[in-house]
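User: I'm putting together notes for a lab meeting next week and I want to include a structural view of one of the chains we've been expressing. I don't have a solved structure, so I'd like a prediction I can at least talk through. The sequence is below, exactly as it appears in our construct file.
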Amino acid sequence: MLEARRAHSQASGLRPSVEGGPAPEMCEMAAARMRVLLLNYEFPPVGGGASTASFQLARSLVSSGHEVHVVTSRMSGSPAYEVVAGISVWRVFSWRNDVQDCGLSGAASYVLSASRRISQLLRLYRYDVVHYFFGLPTGALALTLPRLRRLPSVLSLRGSDVPGYDRSSGMLPVLHQLLHPVSRHIWSSADRIIANSAGLRGLAESFYPDREIQLIPNAVSTELFHPLVQRTHAGGHPLRVLCVARLIARKGVEDLLQAVAKLPEEKIELVLQGSGRDAELLEARASELGITDRVRFAGFRPQSQLASVYSQADIFVLPSHSESCSMALLEAMASGLPVIATRVGGTPELVADGDGGILVPQRDPGALAKALAQMCGQPEMRWRMGRFNRRRTEDCSWKKVSNAYLDEYRRAIEAHRKRTQPATRGRETRS
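Assistant: Thanks for the context. Below is the predicted structure for the 431-residue chain, given as structure tokens.
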């Protein structure tokens, strides 16, 4: 393990942390304009938290004077090419199940389609660095395109691409086992590897103990997500409990439905904002539990439309079985909401138990119900926790995240130069 190399590796609060600071040789590159090729099979309006993170990172890089090209998946009705917030975005065919559900067919078809588009771009543009979001499927592009492997590279691990992260899915652990050599090769080929939480980094290091992995958490747009001037709740009406999540097993939504069923009818109204392969199963489960009049399946909304959703809620709940660095959780906190979440992955790094919310064990509907009842009965506690969460996110900006990634891009360029230089010198000597 790498403990000896980073005695002080934990991030401070929610701030992006790149250990060691920039090396002297990187200072010369600090002001240089970079052209970045950012690859992610999910990018707005497609996908979830990683989609939002890659967009916000790209936008912040562009605002700092850098050039960002994105190759991502295309949904029906989306243009094949457009410029979004200064970002050049190419969208390629992907046979996805849903706007929030890629599936195996979507992942495989993205890699095949993106390979062709990237080959064209590599003939037209000279890139300083390639940034892969997800080891799989996106990192597999490095295996299909030899020219791509000649570029300095940064690999961002996001969660489901790390073996052992999602044990709720029956298929994913099997795929990770089958693709173990492929993942190892992708990770070993990257010049720099980034995790978005200490929890995810620890899991990644257990898979690849010899590889150093850096930590840069997600951030949140506090201009878009902010509290109401005064959050009030009219007595006699149910509290509105919000869960923004993909409707898949890993998110633990069924546990939340069971928790709601344990509470008196007049206590809460649950809003489930999201879509996914388990939507029909969860609707049927709500009917079995007799709570259809207290649960609203509100469907998917893009991030740009979520601020009003958070502003209408009283409590945010994230009952996941695994998380890395939840964007929805950060958005709820920035919106001044108290939170109830499971003690998994990177969530305890975001939520201060007792100060900003209540952390409960995963897969425990009884604990969720108890936490909900506690919050419902204490409006002063909800207000205090919401204020704490807002203050906690105010210094967590995408500008800091993009600066941290710029440092990693420079480190990747330097590492790539050192790694390829001996081979170059050897050829020169032989000639």
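A couple of points you could mention at the meeting. Confidence is low (pLDDT under 50) at residues 1-13, 15-30, 427-431. DSSP finds 16 helices and 14 strands in the chain.

User: Perfect, that's what I needed.
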